[in-house]
Amino acid sequence: MIAAEMLEELKLICDGASQMVEGGCFFVYLPGLRVPSASQIFVLDALLCLQSRDGYPTRLFLSQLVPGRGNNWTQHRILDRTWYTWSWNNVAASSRPTQILAEHLRALR
CA 34, CA 105: separation in Å to the nearest integer? Predict the structure, then answer.
């Protein structure tokens, strides 16, 4: 689970941030997250996984692929919904959730 003060920090970035769990894996749901990419901003739902999953220390899942950004996109079924993520490794779970989110988004700029 994520500490209340860290969830509040994420709410400054995405007002609707909330915690969700599936199969013992905790996620932060970020509805309508603004995802900057090159000269465009996408508004997408996102799931931030702050624990190890699929061989990655943390993951960011998006409701859509970001065209022309990220490598090796894969599709996942989480919380009864289809999500997409790309190969972006070594974002440490020891950082603050806002820093983890920023580091994942950096790959899409």
Answer: 10
Q: pLDDT at residue 31 above 90?
A: yes
Confidence label for 38 from pLDDT (cuts 50, 70 and 90): confident
HSE (side-chain half, CA atoms, 13 Å) at 33: 28
Q: What is the rounded distance in angstroms from the CA atom of residue 18 to the CA atom of residue 16?
A: 6
Dihedral in degrees, nearest 10, Cα atoms 31, 24, 60, 35: 10
Q: What is the mean pLDDT of residues 40-45?
A: 96
In 3-state terms the chain splits into helix, strand, coil percentages (rounded to 5) of: 20, 40, 40
Q: How far is the first Cα of the chain from the last one, in angstroms, to the nearest whole number?
A: 29
- Helices 4-13 + 97-106 axis angle, to 10: 40
User: Tokens 């065209």 sit at which residue?
Assistant: 67
pLDDT digits (tens, 9 = 90+) for 81-95: 999 999 999 899 999
Are 73 and 84 a contacting pair, CB within 8 Å? yes
